[in-house]
Amino acid sequence: MDKILIVDDSPAARMIARRCLKIAGRGGDEFLEAEHGRAALDVLKHNAVKLVIADLNMPVMDGQTLIRFMRSSPRLNEIPVVVVSSLVNPSTAEALKKMGATVVLRKPLNPARMADALESVAQLAEAA
Amino acid sequence: MINAVDRLGGGVLDPVLAEIMEAMTFAGVERVEEDEFAWDDADLVWARVDLIAPAAGDFWMVAPREAAVELTDVVWAGEIEANSETAQALMAEIVNAVAGQILAVLDDEATVHLGLPETGNGKVRPTDFEEARHAYYMDDGTPLGVLIRAAA
Known about the structure:
Chain A is of the alpha/beta class. In chain A, 48% of the residues lie in helices and 20% in strands.
């Protein structure tokens, strides 16, 4: 059972992410939640998280800053980050990937998009 | 900077709203005449967010409180208590998704930037700014209002 961290300030968005993960085949995993990037770093400090699902537009610490922290940390650098945001167009998706996002998804999240993202994460992990 | 009222008309808004409402609430939406929504109802639930780039202004979504609470109960399927507070939270997430996406489709190359959503109950705050009002009905008859205002 892997630990998956869902980072979003919206309880509704976290619920939708949980549902999509379950439908996409990750129902046997443990879901951890955080309301913003700072809280996510606290969760990551105390847990061996295998995958992070993160929003961008959050109070206290946004998703971009969370990714920068993770990619500069030797312990967190290898954890895949799936960004899920409404603020995504081709330009921002490219910038986010350069910053260290593994996969960038546009809201609204649905099970098919989540399944594709999990497949991409798995393929990238195999290739590494 | 792009004027939000000029650029975010029904041609941009309608398909984005339809996709997001379908994904988040499992319901379709249909545009109706603007005056079919009771904008002056004192018992509305609303969420709003500042549009920062590439268009400037603000984006509001409003619904009658009772209908918003019922919608929240459907979406959460009994996982939480549906009340005004949780209805506002759901409305905030819908506003965040719709506002972000309409900005994102305006310009493929632009950096997209929104504020953080605010929520409340009661009437929409009046201003003197240029605005456009859009009204919709969901499949179950729930009325929705969308208000887009230009920047000051």
